[in-house]
Design a protein that fits this description.
Layout (H helix, E strand, L loop, with lengths): L16 H11 L8 E4 L9 H16 L3 E6 L9 H13 L8 E3 L4 H13 L3 E4 L3 H7 L17 H13 L8 E4 L14 E5 L13 E3 L1 H12 L3 E5 L6 H11 L11 E5 L2 E3 L6 H9 L14 H7 L3 H11 L6 E3 L1 H15 L1 E3 L1 E2 L2 E6 L8 E6 L9 E6 L2 E5 L19 E4 L4 E9 L6 E9 L16 E2 L2 E2 L4 E8 L12 H6 L7 E8 L11 E4 L3 E5 L8 E7 L4 H7 L1
Parallel strand pairs: 1-2, 2-3, 8-9, 10-11, 12-25, 14-20, 18-21, 23-27
Antiparallel strand pairs: 4-5, 5-6, 6-7, 13-24, 14-17, 15-16, 17-22, 18-19, 19-20, 23-24, 25-26, 26-27
Helix pairs in contact: 2-11, 7-8, 11-12, 12-14
The structure holds adenosine-5'-triphosphate and magnesium ion.
Length: 570
Amino acid sequence: MTENLPDNKNNTSPTNFIENIINEDLKVNKNNNKVHTRFPPEPNGYLHIGHAKSICLNFGIAENYHGLCNLRFDDTNPSKEEVEYVESIQEDVKWLGFSWEDRLFYASDYFEKLFLYAVELIKADKAYVDDLSPEEIRQHRGTLTQPGENSPYRDRSREENMDLFQKMRNGEFPDGAKVLRAKIDMTSPNINMRDPILYRIMRAHHHRTGDEWCIYPMYDYAHPISDAIEGITHSICTLEFEDHRPLYNWLIDSLIEKTEDFKFRPQQIEFARLNLTNIVMSKRKLRELVEAGHVKGWDDPRMPTISGLRRRGYTPGAIKDFCERIGVAKSNSTVDIALLEHCIREDLNVNASRVMAVLRPLKVVIENYPVGQVEELEAENNPENPDMGTRKMPFSRVIYIEQDDFMEEAPKKFFRLAPGKEVRLKHAYIIKCEQVIKDEKTGEVIELHCSYDPTTKSGEDTSGKKVKGTLHWVSAEHALEAEVRLYDYLFIEQEAIEDEEKEKTAILNPYSLEKLKSYIEPSLINSIAGQRFQFMRNGYFCVDRDSDQDKLVFNRIVSLKDTWSKIKKA
Ligand code: ATP
Ligand code: MG
């Protein structure tokens, strides 16, 4: 019995309420001591960071308890589902580092069985064919304070119901003309129990079953049965399904005696969905952004989709760490997106090489440095991780520094470059600003003339000089030109945009993408899409898939400023 106890019991992480339920189940040997979960996406869009929470939870529980987790496509609504989504979902789950092994299922695999179970329900007088229109069904349903009314078709005989349901399947009625409903209780205080619809007529091409079916099961009907068929023990879903749980149990209880197919009585457990600040988190809304052209596809680096985060430069490790930290709870709350950013910074701080890139270049001529001379200066790749070694940085007479590292009239605490002031160039020399060259027409600073002190070479400095500022730079002759893409949040809204009302009023940020022509140190010449770096003082960056031999393209993953630590302290 102890063999299934989770691995994390050896360490200090506290159990969450779902693990508590599972631990209790294991104590009483429920489900033959098995733990079997599933991740059940509907293939009607790309997965987002909220789904990552569910994936980490379901696959994570299976891993911890030496159990299994299935991937099951919940493809019961063909009008919105596509193969493109099926493929992207598999890619995303794999990329996060989880494996369903040979357990890839589709609810549509069970269409025939689901039909036969519906026949069983009819035989047991637990389902009937209703001719009311969708509008009439709504009117009969009642409200939270008023009971519903029985449909005039509720008392059809079993024989008539069987005949009509078979004819529904045969395509003898037009779309929407009839539905199959569970016969439960129109006066139930729980609206989900007021004779919920089990099947609807819908002539839609299904990406797997083609035109074989013209009736499709409802999610609430297909889901518990799919769970039971697959031997799922713990069916974890989000809180909005709490009120559907009695229906889930009613279906299992109604059918479990009638079939050998159901291995266990699966238990539905609800947890709070992830909401993030500055982000919409519904596939429907994300699809709107794609279709309206506000972003360039589902994997636009501004999107909270897993593919967007991947392209932006997020690592699976950072996303899993984030999901671990937010934990699972029973009441909804909103997580600050700064926590997600904190997780990727922590990861890349130890794992990404530091390199120098000048995003908005200002030319600097070092007048006393010999023309044509090039020095290869030694630069460490990551001070947090000495194992990452060193590289050479060419230094020469003309370099670029960042435009905002110079101010003509600098305030006292500006420790960067200003007329007559000295700064250190990282891994190189101390330079002094001697002369400012401006565009005659615009007055804009276009070039600085500086001098360098040869006794101040990094690592060999004998000058005894102390300067406060250290700037990054690149050698103009050697630097690579690159397109650097800086991102801001897609929405100006600070709160989580978790419901349709908020979605309507949420304002898109018109400045969510900025493209710069920048200069990058030459060691990045062979960098390939997906590689991540820290551009010193500018943030963490990832080579975009638009990058090629002719043009390097980088996405900024995050800046270096960690707002999370502040939030945590406040
Ligand atoms: P959306 O509302 O974004 O379309 P969904 O719940 O309709 O999401 P599904 O494909 O049905 O999307 O979701 C698959 C699984 O992921 C479900 O078990 C669902 O509960 C879970 N899930 C979806 N969104 C979140 C979220 N924000 N946080 C945690 N889990 C989520
Ligand atoms: Mg859904």
